[in-house]
From TrEMBL:
The keyword Transferase applies. SUPFAM superfamilies: ARM repeat, Protein kinase-like (PK-like). This is non-specific serine/threonine protein kinase. Keywords: ATP-binding, Kinase, Nucleotide-binding, Repeat, Serine/threonine-protein kinase, Transferase. InterPro entries: ARM-like, ARM-type_fold, Kinase-like_dom_sf, Prot_kinase_dom, ULK4. The gene is ULK4. It comes from Sarcophilus harrisii.
Amino acid sequence: MENFILYEEIGKGSKTVVYKGRRKGTINFVAILCTDKCKRPEITNWVRLTHEIKHKNIVTFHEWYETSNHLWLVVELCTGGSLELVIAQDEHLPEDVVREFGIDLVTGLHHIHKLGILFCDLSPGKILLEGPGTLKYSNFSLAKAEGENLEEFFALVASEEGGGDGENIQRRCMRSRVKGSPIYTAPEVIKGMDFSIASDLWSLGCLLYEMFSGRPPFFSESFSDLVEQILYQELLPPTPKDSTLPEASPEFVNLLDGLLQKDPQKRLTWAGILQHSFWKEAFTRKDRDSSILVPFFQVKNSYLSQQDMESRMKELIYTDADLIVTPIIDNPKIMKQPPIRFDMKMLHLPAYTAEKLIFLKEHDWHDFLQQVCSQLDTTEKNTAALRAKLNLLCYLCTVANHKEVATKLIHSQLLPLLIQQLRAAPNWDIRAKVARVIGLLASHTIELQENVPVSEVIFLFLLSYCERRIVN
């Protein structure tokens, strides 16, 4: 993972956090998933099924790593969020947009099925949007090859991790882990049949229905009621939440009726889907290099000046967060640091909080600063004096991360004294803590005047580092 820079958190799931990242030395931005090792079967399954897939409607896998506590998955970055988020924000989508998004969904799922893979857990949350609006299938954790027993695969991966103990127990536990969302599950799967191409197509119909109406075709807070609806309730035509909007076209209703047939034998097959009139001949051109049907996209008739194009590219490439370099090592987002503590009884000065320090009167601030400098400048070298000085530096660390306090301290007589301690303190613990205080001040200050001895601080940091390397 040392090849990547970590930026802000962009998503979170069950025992998984997703960060925006960048490969060092490039402007190639990626999504980096940090997952607990308890999800090794799911991540292993995702990697083995997608590591060789290159398709415009499937999120590209790049690399994966293992550290002491986590598994790290590096995949293509999609900046448009998920289809679930789009539906939640817009509540429903116009039929023309449903058609455009549907073409992406059909193209991607057809390719997945052609590779002999069943997605098995198709839901809006697993469909991501690329910046320009292209939909991409993501999260193949519960996907599998046709005819494969996913429970056995999960149990095998888990048993290898745990040394092979309790294999029967693991298989029983895996049974619940390989089940997806029941809202988008086909009737035959609920009855106990295995996943199939037909069950994936049912889920596809559920997504198209939900995009148009803003809600799934069957929904209930009660699991038993939901199962009852999926198995026996008649499908109602989709209607947008806004009654003023146009109703679904006959072609769209017919497509949904074909996809959401409760009997998988009567459900639309790929041949019927690709040739359906709802797509307006989007799938009628055969690709030159393949026998499968693929959509033909016409370039939209729009004109952008060179200046507009450059501005748009800059907006897509750069964000403010990109300039904040956050290394993976010692990053508090992924590695919890122990809190800095100090003993108030050993402090021998008022233990003001950062918020209290901001509002101190001028003479009170002056007295506080004098007490800090006096205790820090002591020349006593006994154990008690060194412990008191370390305790004081720990206290300063707790207040130096406040920007206004840091700004006042870095422009006071404290910084020259800290520099002196960094240069002359005989104890390495003292020097390390002094360096930490200076680093916090520099990191959080909102103003740096010209008379602040920055170059001297940097020189002493380098000198201390070199001395430490020589000693070790």
